[in-house]
Amino acid sequence: MPPEPPPPAPLGLLAELTHRCPLRCPYCSNPLSLARASSELSADEWGRVFEEAAALGVLQLHLSGGEPAARRDLAAIVAHAARAGLYSNLITSGVTLDAARLESLVRAGLDHVQLSVQDAEADSADRIGGLAGAHARKLEFAALVTASGLPLTLNAVVHRQNLERLPALIDLALRLGAGRLEVAHVQYHGWALRNRDALLPSRAQLDAATATVAAARESLRGRLVIDYVTPDYHARRPKACMGGWGRAVLVVTPAGRALPCHAAEGLPGFDFPDVRAMPLRRIWTESAAFRRFRGTGWMPEPCRGCDRRERDWGGCRCQAHALTGDAAATDPACALSPHHALLDLAVREAMAAPDDAAFRYREMRAR
Ligand code: SF4
Ligand code: SF4
């Protein structure tokens, strides 16, 4: 079957400005080997990438990391985004940004802030993030954001060791003046896979959380929008990971590699294109890496003959590789996958671990 033509443009560009971060979350989505500061794209190189993204049709830019504020030239990068006409969203842990730096970002044209919290209670939040005092600094930063007039989204990654405080996280979002709360269950790649036994929730915890979100969406309609990213390990069918490979999102790593998904750099056998060497439009439309799992032509059975194949696109390639060793396999999150029993086994193993199991924290091991 010929490769599927690319969608006209990705909806969003995720720009990972750096892997440096003062926190050490045990579910961090950064790769196990982190990019050195000396390999990072310069502000002007990011500016060229943003211009190319805008010309391609991208509207939304997510400035991420690591912690993007670890870049001293963050305001210059935001200014490039504004000049390119992109709507810019800063995804930050908030622990190193003070009023003066926030003001410089507002002046540079920043449009939105997404602030992560590790829990609703300071002691637990600081333990999960691996940095004492971080939670208190986040609360101070949230107050600065709302005072500046920027819209604020709160992001909470949830798991077995903080899920019981989901109602308190919803209250926290309201108290901080967030217009949106993203409740995202851990996705088990990279560092999170190493901590799976400590993080995986029970079925009962998951069901309680899902009910809490449903009730809050109803009672807070018009006050708080709640996005809910469900976990795969209790699922019968997978999610359309990143909206499908090479369909909705383009990720650029700190060192300038273009990826269809932030976890894809760990997949073997790929030569992901370099934005310093290839224009973004060619990367999106022509590169072998973006075409490899685009559409349905690559699919094995049971996906090939399945009526959901253009809804979930066969699930997550990184999860398929992590659990089966084959990135082209059906995502084991699907009950029709011959590997689905691996997830049941993982849940049983995790439930045997204590509820407060110690974490293996993210380390800054540079490659
Ligand atoms: S998940 Fe935690 S450690 Fe990883 S980049 Fe975000 S704040 Fe830093
Ligand atoms: S068989 Fe493939 S396409 Fe069908 S539901 Fe499972 S993962 Fe999705």
TrEMBL record:
Catalytic activity from the UniProt record: [PQQ precursor protein] + S-adenosyl-L-methionine = E-Y cross-linked-[PQQ precursor protein] + 5'-deoxyadenosine + L-methionine + H(+)
Domain named Radical SAM core: residues: 7-223
EC number: 1.21.98.4
Keyword Magnesium attributed: no
InterPro entries: 4Fe4S-binding_SPASM_dom (IPR023885), Aldolase_TIM (IPR013785), Elp3/MiaA/NifB-like_rSAM (IPR006638), MoaA_NifB_PqqE_Fe-S-bd_CS (IPR000385), PQQ_synth_PqqE_bac (IPR011843), PqqE-like (IPR017200), Radical_SAM_PqqE_MftC-like (IPR050377), rSAM (IPR007197)
Group of enzyme by EC: oxidoreductase
CDD domains the record matches: Radical_SAM, SPASM_PqqE
Cofactor(s) for this UniProt protein: [4Fe-4S] cluster
Pfam families xrefs: Radical_SAM (PF04055), SPASM (PF13186)
Pathway where it operates: Cofactor biosynthesis; pyrroloquinoline quinone biosynthesis
Keywords for this protein: 4Fe-4S, Iron, Iron-sulfur, Metal-binding, Oxidoreductase, PQQ biosynthesis, S-adenosyl-L-methionine
Co-factor note (free text): Binds 1 [4Fe-4S] cluster. The cluster is coordinated with 3 cysteines and an exchangeable S-adenosyl-L-methionine.
GO biological process, one term: pyrroloquinoline quinone biosynthetic process
GO MF annotation: an example: 4 iron, 4 sulfur cluster binding
Residue positions binding [4Fe-4S] cluster: C21, C25, C28
Keyword Oxidoreductase included in the entry's annotation: yes
Family: Belongs to the radical SAM superfamily. PqqE family.
NCBIfam families per record: PQQ_syn_pqqE, rSAM_more_4Fe4S
Subunit comment: Interacts with PqqD. The interaction is necessary for activity of PqqE.
Purpose: Catalyzes the cross-linking of a glutamate residue and a tyrosine residue in the PqqA protein as part of the biosynthesis of pyrroloquinoline quinone (PQQ).
Protein name: PqqA peptide cyclase
